[in-house]
Amino acid sequence: MHAFTKVLLAAIASGSVTVHAQTFTSCNPTSKSGCPSDPALGKAIEYDFTQGAPSDFSVSTGSAPTFTKEGGVFTIAKKGDAPTITSKWYMMFGHYDIKVKAAPGQGVISSLVLQSDDLDEIDWEWVGSASEEVQTNYYGKGQTTTYDRGKTVAAPGSQAEFHTYSLDWTSEAITWSIDGKTVRTLTPETADKDQYPQSPMMLKIGPWVAGDVGQPQGTVEWAGGLIDWSKAPYVMVVESVKAIDYSTGKSYSYGDMTGDWQSIKSDGGKISGTGDPNAQVSDAAPAGTAVSSAASTQSAAANNAAVANSGSTTATAPSSSGTDKPASSGTVKPASSGTAAGTATGAQTSGSSATAATGSNASAATHNSAARIGGSIGAVAFAAAVMIL
Questions:
Q1: DSSP conformation class of 37
Q2: Out of 70, 121, 132, 161, which one is annotated catalytic?
Q3: Which fold has domain 3-374?
Q4: Which residues are CB-neighbours of 305 under 8 A, at least 6 positions away?
Q5: Could you tell me which residue, 62 or 336, shows the higher pLDDT?
Q6: Per-domain residue ranges for the chain?
Q7: Average confidence (pLDDT) over 131-136
Q8: Among the residues of the chain, which ranges form H helices?
Q9: Strand 57-61 to 292-298 pairing
Q10: Residue 5 to residues 32, 148, 184, 376, Cα–Cα distance (Å)
Q11: Percent over 90 (pLDDT), the chain
Q12: Helices (H), strands (E): how many in the chain?
């Protein structure tokens, strides 16, 4: 059992902690009608961060990263820094390969997050004090009533050199891989009941500080302890991103309030449950002059305040196992007719940049993918083990 799991289990059992997930969406289609559609990636595209800032991303939290010959440099130099960029597009089932060198440093978290408007989520997270491992996690519809979904896997040299972290997401399975080697697989049957992610997702990239004065003790312990600001800056570097959308079209919208993938509609294309993870990119995406600032950019403090007011609760800490046990039932059903197809159509390829975001979507949703733990346990249910995003 992970050391922090023991600490948090004891704390929860004693009633000494409350847990808050830093998850927020401006319009949840499963609880509110009239949410705007999500701009679709609808193709395969590759971003070379060594060539400059990608115009298909905006700053969602903190300041913009800088771009050098090494790639996109996400720097934490002072209290409050949490440089995060968010794609202006969404994928509806898909694949990505991202070359990353995680940030070192006790208290520092580096993250890659796929997140939907209805709070489905799939994560990679690196704890700066644990240079030889990475954590994987998932959420369905923002539900945080069970605490056993996180898994920690070996990731040697994650801070010293670049490695390719891949995520393949279909209606049948989610596969996390490092340098082409599968480290975890999740299916609708092995996911917690009604927790299999299956709605259009945006991509979020960036580091943040979990171990800082003022953070809840449980969060600090998970992050390996308090950050040492005298050793700053702490840097996460992203060399490249290849993204493939298994579905096609201009935008994706929710046909009802279920959030089931069969209800998702495509404007001008087709929803596909599977696709080709090796789809070729005809040209690299053009680099912009700078990553644009989103209209709703929030500081880390404002983001935390929004989460605290949301009332959501999450307890998290990862298992050391890379396997997932079957749940009582899955979520994804066979494709019927109409809007969704259960077979592969392959991703379209294009060298043009993705459609720009409209209105509230990606820029308004914020998530640092980690538990906020503090205060008193209140009404938090203690269901099983614990997980960390």
A1: P
A2: 121
A3: Jelly Rolls (2.60.120)
A4: none
A5: 62
A6: 3-374
A7: 97
A8: 3-14, 217-222, 300-310, 361-364
A9: parallel
A10: 36, 10, 20, 18
A11: 60
A12: 4, 25
User: Nearest-CA neighbor of 119 among 219, 243, 252, 29?
Assistant: 29
Mean predicted confidence (pLDDT) in 289-308: 40
- Beta carbons of 116 and 142 less than 8 angstroms apart: no
* All residues at 6 or more sequence positions from 91 whose CB lies less than 8 Å from its CB, including other chains: 40, 41, 114, 169, 200, 201, 203, 243, 244, 245, 246, 247
Q: Is the pLDDT of residue 353 over 60?
A: no
Is it the case that residue 357 has pLDDT exceeding 80? no
Q: Are 356 and 38 in contact (CB under 8 A)?
A: no
**Per-residue pLDDT at 329:** 38
User: What is the three-class DSSP state of 229?
Assistant: helix
Of these residues, 46, 70, 125, 132, which one is catalytic? 125
DSSP per-residue string spanning 260-320:
-GGGEEEESS-EES---TTPPPSSPPPEESSPEEEEEEE-HHHHHHHHHHHT-------BS
What does pTM read for this prediction?
Answer: 0.74
pLDDT band at residue 143 using 50, 70 and 90 as cut-offs: confident
Residue 62, classified by CB atoms within 10 Å of its CB into exposed (0-12), middle (13-18) or buried (19+), is buried
Q: Which of 149, 89, 143, 145 is nearest to 125 (CA)?
A: 149
- Whether 125 is a known active-site residue: answer yes
pLDDT at 62: 87
pLDDT digits (tens, 9 = 90+) for 187-235: 999 999 999 999 999 999 999 999 999 999 988 998 999 999 999 999 9
C-beta of residue 135 within 8 angstroms of C-beta of residue 385? no
Cβ–Cβ < 8 Å for 109, 368: yes
Q: Which tens digits make up the pLDDT trace of 75-116?
A: 999 999 999 999 999 999 999 999 999 999 999 999 999 999
Question: Mean pLDDT throughout 165-182?
Answer: 98
